[in-house]
Every structure is written in structure tokens, then in C-alpha cells.
Amino acid sequence: MDGILAAWMDSYSLYFISYIIYGFSLASSQLIFCNRVFLIMNMYQGLRTIRRTVQEVWVYISVGLMPLTMIPFVYVLTPNQENAKRAMIQDYKIYPDCVYDINSVIVCNPLNNCAIIFAILNLANVFGSTFIIFYATHKAYMLLSKRMLTKSNKTKRMHQKFNKRTRLQAFVIFTFANFPIIMANLILLIDIETAWPSYIIDILRENQPNASLLTLFLFYDPYQLYLTTIWRKYRKHFSKRIVRVKSEHYSENNQRF
């Protein structure tokens, strides 16, 4: 654990707080995503049935609680740092030098199968969240595809854009948020000792905000209009600057001759 807060808080507290924040942020983002999908579905399905209401409540509860269920497990499975570091140094012939670092955190007890349990729980959580997201996306896509058959061309284009945006956002969530977790925990379960998967995991996790921002500018008209306005403004500014530099350079050459 590093950063500015590492100077005021111990590494274990930072680790646990970061997991709480990550769990709530993931739950809120998934709830917002499913809520938008259900709003579109309810808009075109007319009368609400008890079965559909129960299904929506089940999806909301599952999506909201799945990321939060890992918080108590993290609290229970994370060992006492002093004892765990001492055990790792004494009982293992090969151990990383970062164990000596005061900011390092051992997330599982090295003397039992805590890491395996932690990996299985993570995989179950991620697979469940991924299934619910793609299920909601598929339901919205199928509904709007049926509705497009009897609508005008303008409405069809609107539905097509929504379908593309929804599928892209589901793909971005899976690729940049869920897939790195799946990859890391599968490597832990299979016990593969290689460095290259960590680079892929770091690249995907670090670029998740950039990928999410890209989806906004690809399919949301207000963001596209804002981006094009900024681009035109700075393009005119740079064009005038280039013309001014060229004219100054041309006048200097004429003065020399």
C-alpha cells in the first residue's frame, strides 16, 4: 500500500478501507447500469407483472450485495500482519523482499489454505456479477430488437444506438473490471509462477477509467457535441498560431535577403 495516506495510516487499515470503497463503488455502478436497462424494458413492456417485479428485485439485490459480501470475508481472512510476516520469513525458503516493507500487506495466512478460499470467493462473486450484467443486457437487447420491427427509422436508429452502447458498456465492465480479477484468481488457484499475466492485469485495471470514459464519447450525443466543440476551438487556435509563426518566419527570411 502506497500513496499520501500511507504516511498517516497503517497499511492494514488502508487495505481494508480500499476494499470497502471498491465494493461500494462496484455495487453502485452495477446498480445504475441495471436500473437503466430496466427503465428501458419497463418503458416498452407496458403493464408490470408480479413476476417481472420479483425478477427485478432479485437482480437488484444480487447485483448490490455480491460486491459487498467480500468485505466481511476480507476482514476475517486477513491475518495479523506481524505474525503472518514472521511465519512467512521463518517457514518459507524463498519469500519476496517486500515482506520487510512496513507498507506491505499479507492478505492471507501463509500457513493454511486461506488464499484458495479467497480466490474461490472472488471468482464466485465476479462470475455472478458478470452473469447478471450480461443477462440484463441480453433482455434489453432482445426487447428493443422486437420493438424495432414496427417503429420508424428514427426510433430504430435510437434503439440501435442504445443496444450498441449497452453491449459495449457490458463488455468494458467485463474486460477491464471483472476479467483481471478472474485472471488473477485463476493463476492463484492453478499456482502458476510467471510474471507476464501481472502486466496484463495491471494494464487492464489501470485503464478501466479511460475505457469507461471512451464509451461516453462514443455513444452519448451531449459528450460528442462537447468534444467536437472543444476540438474546433483548439483547432482554430492552433491554426492561427501556425499561420502567425509561418508569417514571422517568412518576414525574417525576407529581411535577411
UniProtKB/TrEMBL annotation:
Coiled coil: none annotated. It comes from the Eukaryota. Signal peptide: none annotated. The keyword Nucleotide-binding does not apply. It holds the Pfam family 7TM_GPCR_Srh. The chain crosses the membrane at residues 12-38, 58-78, 115-137, 168-190, 210-231. The keyword Ribonucleoprotein does not apply. Keywords: Membrane, Transmembrane, Transmembrane helix. PANTHER family: SERPENTINE RECEPTOR, CLASS H. This is Uncharacterized protein.
